[in-house]
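Regression test case RT-17, inverse folding.

Input:
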């Protein structure tokens, strides 16, 4: 189902196959599971459920979700962490192979995490471009058909994000996208506007517009093909440090307006991160966004690419114990059904 294009032939094939892969990830009525927690994040995440992390516990953590029966009805793809590409599930099959056999496209996070920016130390810049071409070749051989790069955009009043941070993160996202398309894989560009802060929803909306506008102007400068890329974004939400719960309709109005203002119609699709919302909030907000996008005739397909909002309930049941696997998987499947139903 997913075309493998040899690295050297990617340009020969043009972008047609990539457009088809990108579209199929976003517009099949299914969505993505973000299971790309790095070692540090996975360790912290598991610890918050009382689970001591180890390489084997991380493998079991992945298998809990990937080994759930019927997930292919709701998932078009899964974003993996690089170590997972070479691991096997309890069925003794390599994860990318067993996912692809079930029609779930395997993808991989290719950024190497963030560090403070020299010019603006309160902000973060994402690393990973240096050895990217070599790593892409290896990931592709391991079965990845798409990739993801996350940039972190912090709001602090009217001061942050700074122009320099927005521009440098956009530049790196654009170089990443160009490399990935050249290697014959689909890039997901994730400039995450963080929920943390004391800002209101209107400020989040404005920052999403500024972030996307900066990104697309740099993508155009580098002639990156927009039809074979996917945008992963946060929703427009009031900052987590103020006690305001936005209604789904408010979130939908500001999120869809921000994206209509700043994301060109050619992109293959837009996927949402859950960004610290509860599973119920992330589900209700997605439903309102999908409805609003339909009534506004939004040009791009939309779907979910959640990590925490899909995994949280299952992890709370699992607690790292074998006997809890069936109940944890049932909770995961139940949440997936609800999130998928939000799209229609
Ligand atoms: C799962 O978290 C992903 C990787 O984060 P680290 O590199 O810090 O380990 C992250 O990129 C994730 O894909 C998105 O932020 C979406 O996750 P949420 O939990 O916001 O839906």
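Golden output:
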């Amino acid at each position: 189902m997913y075309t493998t294009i040899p690295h050297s032939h990617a340009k020969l094939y043009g972008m047609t196959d990539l457009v088809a892969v990108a579209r199929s990830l976003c517009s099949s009525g299914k969505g993505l599971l973000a299971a790309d927690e790095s070692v540090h994040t996975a360790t912290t995440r598991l610890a918050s459920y009382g689970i001591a992390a180890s390489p084997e516990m991380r493998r079991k953590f992945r298998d809990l979700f990937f080994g759930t029966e019927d997930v292919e009805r709701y998932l078009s793809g899964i974003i993996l962490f690089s170590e997972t590409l070479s691991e096997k599930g309890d069925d003794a099959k390599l994860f990318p192979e067993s996912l692809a056999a079930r029609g779930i496209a395997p993808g991989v996070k290719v950024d190497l995490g963030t560090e403070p920016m020299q010019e603006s130390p309160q902000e973060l810049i994402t690393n990973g471009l240096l050895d990217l071409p070599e790593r892409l070749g290896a990931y592709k051989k391991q079965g990845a058909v798409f990739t993801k790069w996350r940039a972190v955009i912090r709001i602090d009043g009217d001061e942050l994000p700074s122009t320099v941070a927005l521009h440098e993160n956009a530049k790196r996202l654009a170089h990443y996208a160009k490399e990935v398309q050249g290697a014959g894989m689909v890039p997901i560009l994730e400039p995450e506007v963080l929920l943390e802060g004391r800002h209101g929803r209107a400020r989040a909306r404005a920052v999403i517009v500024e972030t996307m506008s900066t990104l697309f102007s740099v993508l155009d400068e580098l002639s990156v093909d927009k039809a074979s890329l996917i945008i992963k974004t946060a929703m427009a939400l009031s900052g987590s440090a103020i006690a305001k719960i936005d209604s789904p309709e408010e979130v939908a109005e500001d999120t869809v307006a921000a994206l209509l203002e700043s994301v060109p119609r050619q992109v293959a699709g837009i996927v949402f991160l859950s960004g610290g919302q509860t599973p119920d909030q992330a589900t209700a907000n997605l439903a309102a966004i999908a409805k609003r996008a339909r009534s506004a005739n939004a040009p791009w397909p939309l779907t979910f690419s959640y990590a925490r909002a899909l995994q949280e309930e299952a992890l709370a049941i699992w607690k790292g114990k074998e006997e809890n696997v069936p109940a944890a998987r049932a909770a995961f499947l139940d949440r997936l059904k609800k999130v998928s139903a939000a799209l229609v």
